[in-house]
């Protein structure tokens, strides 16, 4: 694997065209330093593939619900098939400070989630 940083001045190397010679009249690709004359000429094709991990989202209202408060919800659960009046809830300030906080709910029985502004 070719270097990605200059061994002399520790700056990031960029790809540029190295000067040509008898064997390669148009020149070759090389990793070059922009601040010093260092060059790493690429003699063979080089590629690198990096696979990124997808960020795992935290399930705020997931399995660990015992520490969340339970309250009676005005109007009950919005799910038409559920007649529960209780839900887990928490509040977050999602808008400006002069607005009331947003309340997030999750029904105890059916698990439906909703919010009220």
TrEMBL record:
Gene3D superfamilies given in the database record: 2.20.25.10
Domain (TFIIS-type): residue spans on this chain: 73-115
Keywords, alphabetical: DNA-directed RNA polymerase, Metal-binding, Nucleus, Transcription, Zinc, Zinc-finger
Pfam families, A to Z: Zn_ribbon_TFIIS
Binding site for Zn(2+) 1: 6, 9, 33, 36
Gene Ontology cellular-component terms listed: nuclear DNA-directed RNA polymerase complex; RNA polymerase III complex
Any single biological process term in GO: termination of RNA polymerase III transcription
Ranges in coiled-coil conformation: none
Residues binding Zn(2+) 2, per UniProt: 77, 82, 107, 110
A single GO molecular function term of this UniProt record: DNA-directed RNA polymerase activity
Compartments where found: Nucleus
SMART domains: RPOL9, ZnF_C2C2
Ranges annotated as C4-type zinc finger: 6-36
UniProt xrefs under InterPro entries: Rpa12/Rpb9/Rpc10/TFS, Zn_ribbon_RPB9, Znf_TFIIS
Function: DNA-dependent RNA polymerase catalyzes the transcription of DNA into RNA using the four ribonucleoside triphosphates as substrates.
Family membership: Belongs to the archaeal rpoM/eukaryotic RPA12/RPB9/RPC11 RNA polymerase family.
PANTHER family: DNA-DIRECTED RNA POLYMERASE, DNA-DIRECTED RNA POLYMERASE III SUBUNIT RPC10
Protein name: DNA-directed RNA polymerase subunit
Species lineage: Eukaryota, Fungi, Dikarya, Ascomycota, Pezizomycotina
